[in-house]
Every structure is written in structure tokens, then in C-alpha cells.
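Page header: ASSEMBLY MODEL / two components / 724 residues total.
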Amino acid sequence: MRLRLPGPTEVPEDIANIGSKPMINHRGAEMAELMEKLSDDLKICFGTNNEVHILTSSGTGGLEAAVVNHISANDEVLVVTIGVFGNRFLQLVEMVGAKPTVLKYDFGQAADVNDVEDALNANPNIRFLVMTHNETSTGTTNYQIEQIAKVAKAKGCLTIVDAVSSLTATPVEVDSWGLDVVVSGSQKGWMMAPGLAFISLSEEAWDVQKTCKTPRFYFDLLKSRESLQKGQTPWTPAVSLFYQLELSLDKLKSEGMDNVIARHATCAEKARNGIKDLGFELLAQKGYESNSVTAIKAPEGLDVSALLKTASEEFDTAFAGGQGSLGGKIFRFGHLGFVTEEDIANGLDVLTKSLESIGFRN
Amino acid sequence: MRLRLPGPTEVPEDIANIGSKPMINHRGAEMAELMEKLSDDLKICFGTNNEVHILTSSGTGGLEAAVVNHISANDEVLVVTIGVFGNRFLQLVEMVGAKPTVLKYDFGQAADVNDVEDALNANPNIRFLVMTHNETSTGTTNYQIEQIAKVAKAKGCLTIVDAVSSLTATPVEVDSWGLDVVVSGSQKGWMMAPGLAFISLSEEAWDVQKTCKTPRFYFDLLKSRESLQKGQTPWTPAVSLFYQLELSLDKLKSEGMDNVIARHATCAEKARNGIKDLGFELLAQKGYESNSVTAIKAPEGLDVSALLKTASEEFDTAFAGGQGSLGGKIFRFGHLGFVTEEDIANGLDVLTKSLESIGFRN
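Prediction written out in full:
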């Protein structure tokens, strides 16, 4: 099955295979050496000198870690949401008993720095900005994130960013943009299997972490920090995925992060053009289309589930439907991770044939 | 490196390799089919008709799930601890703000049903029994667990059991013993890589789960239950590890759980006998020695770290040291998962040679 999903993405054969290397002692010297290498290489990809920690969990586990380590009950938080994953972040903020102010956009819209500034001006008690960089559910990217983070910083907020599906596909400069907490997930742009989350914390974030009152254990990042000093993780790590990550990072470094991002931009543009040529409209606001995934509006009369079924069963290709209230209203064409222009051409071809097969004409 | 650790354990080549199969759509039909198969097979290994859920986390994540889904702030809980992992369970109970009564045994001692009964009689408000089945840190197994669970049940307690390192190595009969919540971890007896936790819940446990007030998100088992109806997990699962689990369960079924357990018992006995022949004493109370790992007291004059270093560097074999306050006082010989009598003979041989190499004589 070819996966034109916004994750899990296809895994190059050599990365997949390296996961089967013999198991090592996760408290031994080999592991410590591996941890140091992964930690250094992740910093390069994140554009940061901050420590980057690796969690054995999905990206959602990483988002939970970002929240429970920093936000306490009654803290005032600005949550900027442009879709399903922004809403998930909001649920986590609510879970810890914090007081969220919600800046919510329609599906397909991106956040505007002026709105954020207004919201922060209206409530000077807000201490945290929580937002999604790339919204997988709508194929929309908050490209104003740098300006937004700077506004939030100027107001004394800690910025907590979901970069689960943006990192490697879109520029993310943690240090120069001043992003305090940034989360990504292995099954997105990292060309490897699901099961790991990555999270970077600035020194300001660690200061807040130390005094955060929210109970935590598995996702307690102080435990991760103490273990990292010994080249370990606090709990048994998913060692086979650490092997995959090592090779994935080698490949990313060897291609060069700028080139990796440029490849994503080219693939995304090719996908958008092809989709428009087929007569479809995109969900994302112009100028804010995602490099990771393209969300396509289903025109009247298009049965999305029939389309996905046909693409899968007749043409061995998985596209994604809409999540939550977007179910049946959109479909999504993923182009992140191990993706080439040829994959895009192939995906467009499958789409064309599947539409023919179900007898839909735009 | 040969791993004579109590996890991560060695992974058979075919199980390791199957993890590199191409990625699939985690929301598609193939995944649903796989989920159903894994779910059915796990039930066989757990000896239960209860649903068994798979979490992408280490075993500790599974323990957190067991606690945060059932125990609320101010709940009265009896925590039975015989070592490091029992103490970890206690920390989780404390994290949710519950009121623990702690029944604590010296390292190497196992829990006694009479003590549990006394503790429950002394405090009729206790609603939960939390305990470790096999204590990896001391090589001691709570073989009275069935009687203890029955006493707890008769007092109206929900029983929450850490079977992370006992399942597949020691009989665990979830249904006939009346264990409400039971946790295991993939890197222990399951002959596969780390990164998954398994958890079974009785209907009584689900009833408590529904009213439990502890905030939870990533480990919210109700979300797992709802997703399982659709053959899914709530968050992206570690798909490559699910592939490994499928083959691991096939192998366990084909060997037969009784035979798997008998193999562990034979290997454990052989290890104990060999260790005693070398003049060492075991940490575990007689009759409560673990099938998963043997903990060996370090006699005066034995430098445990030198021993482990020599075994690792000269003989390519990893044994484990003592955890926490047991550091330097014991070393541990793991024999669970993919283990044969030949592995035990080999481990004993390495131990003999390593002791010679560091010039230690009993």
C-alpha cells in the first residue's frame, strides 16, 4: 500500500530494516553513545541548542508532556486553534485545570499575529501561548508563528508549539524564533515508524517546569533530563525505534535540512497544482497551505469514502479522509517524510483514476 | 551482546525482522484486522475474557494507566511493595493524591496473604489493592497473589497488578484469580522490542474507570476502548512493534503457554543451581524465587561493577546490577523471554570466567 497520508508515512527500506538490529542493554555504554548522537542530531533538525528529549509515545504523548510539565491548574493560557490538533491541545490544557482563552479559527484559516496580540492585550494575566504549527487536519500552516512567538515572548509568555507534522517539512527555527517548548513525532517527517515523540525545552521552560504543580510521572521531563546525563531514558525506551531514528537523522543531515524542506515545498506545490487541475478547491487559506499535507474540499456529489475505498482497493494507495466534523467534507493528500515528486505524480494519477472509477466528474 | 538482563531481552531474528514490514494505514482495514488478532491472542496469554489494550509506552506507562484510570484523589489504597517496582507503583498512587497504606517488605521477601488480610481488616475504607506480581529488582515473586487477590476481592477491593515481568514466565490467570487490572510490557517475556504495554480490565474495573476523577488523556483507557471498537488505537500506535507482537503471540501460542512457563521454570532453576554451585546466595526468600530473573547477593569483597564490566567487555554478556539502594549489593541474571537452557549454561560459564578474570573467589 502506498501511503499518501499525513502520517504514518512510508519508511525507507534501510531505515525499516535497521530496526531489527540486535537488542542492546538500555543501561549500557552502547545506549549512552547512541543517546548522545541522537540528542546532538535532533538539535540540528530543531535549530536549537536546547536539549531535545525522546519519549516512547505517539506525538500526542509529546503534547501531553509539553502541557503537564509547564501548565498548572488556574494558569491563564492562550490556546490558538485552527483545527483538530489545536482542539486536542486545548483538551490537554483543560485537563490540567488551567484557564484557557481560546482563539479559534475556521477550518482552513491560519492564525493572525494581530489577533494574538489583541488577545494577549485583553488579558495580561496570560502566561502561556499554546499553538499548532502545522494543522494536519486542515492542511494549513501557521506561517506567522515566528511573529506570534515574538509577540507572546514580549508579553512574558512561554510558547508551547506542536510541530509534530511541520518539523522537517517546513522551517522551524526553535532558537531564533524563541520557541520555548516544541514537540514532534517520529511517524511524520522523520521517515520512520511511529512510537517516538521529540520535545525541546528552553532554559525558561525548564525554570517553569521545576515549579509546575501538575502531577506527572511517565511524562515527567525532569526525570528525562536527569537520565539523559547518564545517557539513558527514565523508562525502558523503544530501542528498535531509536535505531531507526539514528539512520533517519543521518539521512536528514546528509540531504541537508534546507534541501529536505525545499523537497517538501516542491512536492506540496506539485500536489496543489495537480489537484487544482483536477478542478478541486483547497481548504487552506491562500498563502497558508501546508508543506506536509494538502486538504481538498469535497465538491457536492463526491462520496469521499467511496473515493478513499477505491484508491485503496483498486489502486493500492491510502489517502486520508477528514477528521471529526470534517468527515465527508474533505480528503487529504499527504506529502511528508520519505516523499519525491514521482510519488506526487503517482498520487495524482491514482486520484484521477479513482475519480473515474467511481464516476465522479468535476 | 548476549543479554542476560531482566529486559530488554533478546529478540528472535524473525520477530526482529518482521518489524520492518512496510508501514500500513493505522486507520485502515489491515490495522483493524491486526488489532482484532492481537486482542484475541493477548487474552489467551493473560488467561482472560477481558479486553486487553495495547499502549505505545514502556511498562511504566502501563502502570500509570492502571493507576490514573481507577484511583482518584483521597481514595484509600493498600500498596504492597517488595522492591523498586512496588515503590514505583506507590509513587503513582501518591501522584494522584490517593491515601496509601503501605505494606512494605524487605528486599527479597514476598508478600504474605495474612499481612494483607490484617491490613485490610485494620482499614475497612481501603478500596484498592495495588501490587507487583514479580519484583524484577529483587528476583522475588509474589506467588501468593491468587490468595491475596481473593482476600482483597472479598473486602470489596479492586485489584491492580503489575505483571510486567511475570506474564509468560509465571502462571497468571487473570479471570480465575479475579485480577481486575493487569499490566505487562513488551520487552519482558514477550520476546520482542520495548515500546508497548498491555493492560487488561475487568468489567468491575471499567465501572470504576468511568467514575474515576483523576485527569488523564494519553493513557485514558476509555478512549482506547472506544477506538478498539473500530479496530484502532486513539493515538498513532507503534505499528512496527504491533507487527512484532503478532509474531511473538503466534510463537507463544504455538509453543503453548504451559510449555512457555515450564521452559522459564526450568531455566530459572538451572540458573539458581549454577549460581549456588558457584558459592553465592540468592536474595529471594526460599520458595519465592522468580522465574524471570535471579538476584544474587554480592559477598564481601566482590566488586559488582567490575564483574558486570568484565562480563560485558571480555565476554560480550550483559548482566544487571542492583537498582536504587541495592546498587553494589546484588547482581541479577535475567532468564525470561527468548531463553533456553543453553543460554543459562552460557551465562553461568561467563559468570565463572568473569569472576576468575577479576580475581574473585568465594
